[in-house]
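re: ur question from earlier - yeah i can do the single chain one, its not a big deal. heres the input i used so u can compare w yours
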Amino acid sequence: MSEPATTEPVAILAGNGELPQFVVNAALRNGRSPVVFALAGEAEPTAFAPATVHTIRWGEIGRMLRLFDESRCREVVLIGSILHRPDYRTIRLDFGAMKLVPRILRLMTERDGSILAGVARLFEEKGIRVVSPLAVAPDLALAEGSVVGELTERANEDIAAAVEGAREVGRKDIAQGAVAVGGRVVAVEDATGTDALLERVALLRRSGTIRKEGGVLVKCLKPNQDGRHDLPTIGPATAFAAKRAALDGVAAEAGKAILVGRDETLEAFRQAGLFLAGLKATKSGHG
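and the output i got, formated as tokens:
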């Protein structure tokens, strides 16, 4: 993997889940100085030691920008999920946010991807560059080719079909994933996420609707998606869920999918007896 182009501080706006911790740790390994802004109610501040951590609440835009300046952060990574969408009636806006009220209220009614895009625009208007988590944690990127296991002719046929399914659901701005079995798409991801998709596949098998084993999960960026945030993620949980769904393996775009812990994820796929493959990425959105 290539080394980061700079050792300057980088802000990490951290939401829910394990992924922000892995990105912070990888950034430290790669010579960056992450300054974590843990979103209150989503990220646990103590999880990011030894990085500098600030807890930030919804509406504290002025305080956050002031801390960016004090920390000399000119770049920010947006990472993690938002499980608890704020209620606009209870948000306490600081002075820096007051003039942004109309935009903030509009953002809170959007889908998660649109919220992130809107937040990115707000940062960039203030001179803060939004970068992909893989720009500061390149060792978490899925590599091209067969990373774990081997691809059979049957797997390649399923991958080709699932890629088309994932692109179609992405064009509708719904989600990023699809499952193909026997060369045809049998299920696509929706707002409930990848785990729910794989559970539906398992139910189809139990009902006899599709054959009892085989098939592939593919995850891709949505066409025209901004590639700096909301990247397809693959982790140990993906491997376990794919195993329960009796799939042969998982594939995603190389260099555009992020591993929730490289060693942990690869070992989980090995233990599950599944392949993990990185597909040649296509150009989409910001890189």
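The chain has a mean pLDDT of 87. not sure if urs matches, ping me
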